[in-house]
Design a protein that fits this description.
Blueprint: E1 7-10, H1 20-29, E2 34-40, H2 52-60, E3 66-72, H3 80-86, E4 90-94, H4 101-110, E5 114-119, E6 137-141, H5 157-170, E7 175-179, H6 184-192, E8 197-200, H7 202-205, H8 210-218
Parallel strand pairs: 1-8, 2-3, 3-4, 4-5, 5-6, 6-7, 7-8
The structure holds D-xylitol-5-phosphate (DX5) and zinc ion.
Residues 11, 13-14, 36, 38, 70, 143, 145-150, 179-182, 199-203 line the site of D-xylitol-5-phosphate.
């Protein structure tokens, strides 16, 4: 199966929280199409971030970026509709909390969004195996979620390889996204393991030459 075009999704969590509209505009002006929106409830993860109002506000500025919306929530199923209505294009939900995952994944698509399933570093690939034929994206966390700027966890690489192998064996076409501590070096290791979609917060927004960062990452072999 030919590999999907590589996508870099900058994480808005590492942007300018005093002016996120300009952060989104900066991403678009660099020719990127995706932006990663980290939504945190202070319960599933020990941090709070944004709500649906941010997505709606960014849409009102005329942003046409693809909103890759990562729900780090204990009850994500309760917020799917709000984020879809606010302008999300893809909504990814964690497998760890207890709720009807299949119903939630179906609901995301019924609202016109792409769906994604997310695994924390300590969650085995087997946890998402029953759902891989019903998702548009699998997000493999390469840090424990909650904060940007953490160290990449190399122990997650075998899990990436496993999920990529299942995708290949079953002829599936979901995107395989990685998130947390992604820079050019760790992105290269993830690419070699089968990833095609890369979330970068700190490494991207601190890059001295963002255009060079984008070019190198999206051209990884
Ligand atoms: C962590 C978030 C990540 C984070 C990535 O909970 O899901 O998207 O913002 O930030 P960096 O790239 O700085 O690790
Ligand atoms: Zn994220």
């Amino acid at each position: 199966m030919p590999s999907l075009p590589l996508i870099l999704a900058p994480s808005i969590l590492a942007g300018d929280h005093a002016n996120l509209a300009s952060t989104a505009q900066q991403v678009a002006e660099l020719g990127l199409t995706w932006i990663h929106l980290d939504i945190m409830d202070g319960h599933f993860v020990p941090n709070l971030s944004f709500g649906p109002a941010l997505l709606a506000a960014l849409r009102r500025t005329g942003s046409t970026l693809f909103f890759d919306t990562h729900l780090m929530l204990s009850e994500p199923h309760r917020y799917i509709e709000a984020f879809a209505k606010a302008g999300a294009n893809l909504i990814s939900i964690h497998i760890e909390p207890t709720y009807d995952h299949r119903a939630a994944l179906h609901k995301i698509r019924s609202l016109g969004c792409q769906n994604g399933l997310v695994l924390n570093p300590q969650t085995p690939a087997s946890a998402i195996a029953p759902f891989i034929a019903d998702v548009d994206l699998i997000l493999v966390m390469t840090v424990q979620p909650g904060f940007g700027g953490q160290q990449f966890r190399h122990d997650v690489i075998p899990k990436l390889q496993q999920i990529a192998a299942w995708r290949q064996q079953r002829g599936l076409t979901f995107r395989l996204e990685v998130d947390g501590g992604i820079d050019l070096e760790t992105a290269s290791a993830c690419r070699a393991a089968g990833a095609d979609t890369f979330v970068a917060g700190t490494a991207f927004f601190r890059a001295t030459d963002p255009r060079a960062f984008i070019k190198t990452l999206t051209k990884l072999p």
